[in-house]
């Protein structure tokens, strides 16, 4: 069983600042981290391997040379190998071009070691579209399952996987043929503490670094800014909401406050 996890380096959006003049993210204001959903994706691959008693886990990232840090972090969680595709030709990519470049790298990895499952995060905390996973599945012509909260069972003989998928009003169980692509929610698992041996491996690990020339049969017009039909029309910080009333205290105290607020504003509800 060979699982490839796609991992993205993102700015820590809990601390990042927005430049008030340009309304763009000031990426230097926050440290770069492994996208938190992708950490859960790597952890899930480790859990699946443990359950099966064998398997290999590779991670793949597209980004600048510094993105090797998220590959090392993934090795620390338990991945065996890592690939970084990095090249000026990939710069300025939107989700369409990102999924094209990553799917070309997945094809190359699969030629060397057939891939049974690709796992991605539900979304990246910076771009936040959730499009890259399904985009890669479409290009590779494999079934995508989004919002996975549990990988329940893997049948290696039938080459199927049973997964639990979150819905707005419950969940559904789906049996999917492998190879397939899953995108995972944070509930899928809890990140474990890494053993010291993993940390030592991660510190010594040198990821495989590929440029565009290392990928096979790439249509360069589909890469980077050239291959990105998305145009960012405007970016702005939404204005702070005016007014509002925070309720506090015990539930009874909150009900009393709410009744006061409603009584003050009864004209809004047409109450005499
Ligand atoms: C016009 C335009 C220009 C842009 N230019 C740039 C730019 O120059 N530099 C830049 O950094 N961003 C740029 N972006 C943002 C970039 O398109 C997105 O960050 C990227 O396509 C991923 O989309 P997302 O963040 O919405 O990921 P999502 O679709 O939300 O991510 C879902 C999952 O896909 C996987 N994934 C996503 N991206 C990667 C990745 N790079 N490597 C490995 N796995 C991944 C992860 O598993 C992740 O959890 C640009 C966007 C637009 C619209």
Automatic annotation (TrEMBL):
Organism name: Bacillus benzoevorans
SUPFAM superfamilies: Adenine nucleotide alpha hydrolases-like (SSF52402)
Name assigned to this protein: Electron transfer flavoprotein small subunit
Top-rank lineage group of the source organism: Bacteria
Ranges of residues in domain Electron transfer flavoprotein alpha/beta-subunit N-terminal: 22-219
Annotated GO MF terms: electron transfer activity
Signal peptide span: none
């Amino acid at each position: 069983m060979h699982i490839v996890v796609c991992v993205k380096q993102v700015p820590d959006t809990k601390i990042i600042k927005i430049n008030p003049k340009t309304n763009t993210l000031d990426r230097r204001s926050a440290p770069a981290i492994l996208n938190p959903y992708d950490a859960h994706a790597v952890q899930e691959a480790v859990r699946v391997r443990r359950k099966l008693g064998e398997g290999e886990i590779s991670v793949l990232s597209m980004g600048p040379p510094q993105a090797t840090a998220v590959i090392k972090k993934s090795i620390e969680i338990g991945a065996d190998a890592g690939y970084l595709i990095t090249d000026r030709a990939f710069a300025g990519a939107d989700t369409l071009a990102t999924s094209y470049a990553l799917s070309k790298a997945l094809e190359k990895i699969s030629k060397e070691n057939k891939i049974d499952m690709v796992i991605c995060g539900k979304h990246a905390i910076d771009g936040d579209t959730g499009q890259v996973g399904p985009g890669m599945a479409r290009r590779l012509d494999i079934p995508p399952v989004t919002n996975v909260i549990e990988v329940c069972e893997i049948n290696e003989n039938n080459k199927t996987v049973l997964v639990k998928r979150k819905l707005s009003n419950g969940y559904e169980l789906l049996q999917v043929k492998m190879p397939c692509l899953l995108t995972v929610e944070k509930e899928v698992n809890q990140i474990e503490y890494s053993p010291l041996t993993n940390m030592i491996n991660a510190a010594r690990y040198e990821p495989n670094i590929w440029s565009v020339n290392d990928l096979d049969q790439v249509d360069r017009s589909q890469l980077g800014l050239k291959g990105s039909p998305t145009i960012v029309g405007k970016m702005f910080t939404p204005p702070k909401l005016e007014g509002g009333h925070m309720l506090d205290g015990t539930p009874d105290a909150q009900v009393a406050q709410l009744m006061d607020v409603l009584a003050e504003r009864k004209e809004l509800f047409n109450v005499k």
